[in-house]
Amino acid sequence: MQSSIQQTNRTFEDEVAAKRNVEALDKVYTRNARILPPGGEMVSGRGNIKQFWRGAIESLNVSSAKLETVTFETAGDSGVEVGRATLNFAAGGSATGKYVVIWKQEDGAWKWDVDIWNMNA
To answer: 76: which strand partners?
Structure first.
């Protein structure tokens, strides 16, 4: 299970953030996933989440992301991950934050079902 979690996180890093391939979010989020971005409304459904990330990555000019799992615990047919994130920007500099993801299995793969994060001050 841990390797599946890491593979999904690497897909976000390598495909979504580094290559700006938001279509790869099909491999990251469940169909009915929800994200709770800082200072914003909840976004529901993978299509809407793709729009959110497309805009965020472009407006912030993200060049890469690094996700680091701090803890992961299974809870029945789901799991909860607490982690740290670093975003790097094409213009230079970076930002760090923390996140909580509730994981669920869909189509034989572990995916993000609820994703909430905020940046460190």
So the answer is: none
